[in-house]
UniProtKB/TrEMBL annotation:
Region called Disordered, residue ranges: 49-76
Pfam families xref list: SPOR
Lineage: Bacteria, Pseudomonadati, Pseudomonadota, Betaproteobacteria, Neisseriales
Gene3D superfamilies noted in UniProt: Sporulation related repeat (3.30.70.1070)
Bias (Low complexity) ranges: 58-76
Residues in SPOR domain copies: 116-194
Protein name listed in UniProt: SPOR domain-containing protein
Leader sequence segment: 1-17
Xref: InterPro entries: SPOR-like_dom (IPR007730), SPOR-like_sf (IPR036680)
Sorted UniProt keywords: Signal
Gene source species: Chitiniphilus shinanonensis
């Protein structure tokens, strides 16, 4: 039996030696067939033109801030949204006042009647000047004193070249107006009962648009002696 054990031991030793001496298994590599192998040519290293690397764009501090800060929305400009235009329209007769009133209603202009031709009984005015130019100079003096509620009479009638400073429903109101004018430095103004040949009306127009102003300029040109001017709102 000993010889059988020795034989098995020798067989195991031989198998172990055989297994250790076998070369490692090499995996097969599948090479794809060459495509257009006849067009392949070898180029020397000195003939190869290097591709330039892209130049990085420098980032400034403002660019960094702009990238990190979201752009603020651009505010919508309103035309003239914040602008307000107010006009004073003075017409020298009741008939013209009626025409002016109808034009204002048609245009939808916001109107405040300062002096109504129908209610006027007493007139505050500067007597007629020698010429229209002299009357305009007198008006310029009034503006220099801060007085804007006036108009130069230019209707070719009895009161041509006078400067009207307002018509009032009572003598007391006219006297108060005259006192105020005296305090402002006006010395040539007088008060008289209303003359039927001159019954002016004054309208204050608020928030007038450009289209409305153009239409008012055309209407004013059709009323002799009427005056349309810009005033404070």
């Amino acid at each position: 039996m000993k010889w059988l054990a020795v034989l098995l031991l020798l067989a195991n030793a031989a198998f172990f030696a055989y297994d250790r001496l076998q070369p490692p298994e090499v995996q097969a590599v599948v090479v794809a067939p060459e495509v257009k192998a006849d067009q392949v040519r070898i180029v020397a290293a000195g003939q190869v033109t290097p591709v330039p690397a892209p130049t990085p764009t420098p980032t400034t501090a403002s660019d960094t801030h702009a990238a990190s800060t979201p752009a603020a929305p651009t505010p919508t400009t309103v035309a003239a949204a914040g602008s307000r235009v107010c006009l004073r329209w003075i017409v020298p007769s009741p008939d013209q006042a009626e025409i002016a009133g109808s034009r204002l209603r048609a245009l939808g202009v916001t109107v405040q009647t300062l002096h109504s031709a129908e209610q006027a009984k007493v007139w505050v005015y500067i007597p007629p000047q020698a010429s229209l130019e002299d009357a305009k100079k007198k008006a310029a003096e009034l503006e220099a004193l801060g007085i804007e509620d006036y108009f130069v009479v230019n209707n070719g009638g009895r009161w041509q070249n006078a400067v009207s400073l307002g018509v009032y429903s009572t003598r007391e109101a006219a006297d108060r107006r005259l006192t105020t004018l005296r305090e402002q430095g006006v010395r040539s103004a007088v008060v008289r009962d209303r003359d039927d040949t001159l019954r002016p009306a004054s309208f204050l127009l608020r928030d007038v648009t450009e289209a409305q102003r153009a239409a008012l300029n055309r209407a004013n040109a059709q009323l002799r002696g009427a005056q349309l001017s810009e005033t404070g709102c």
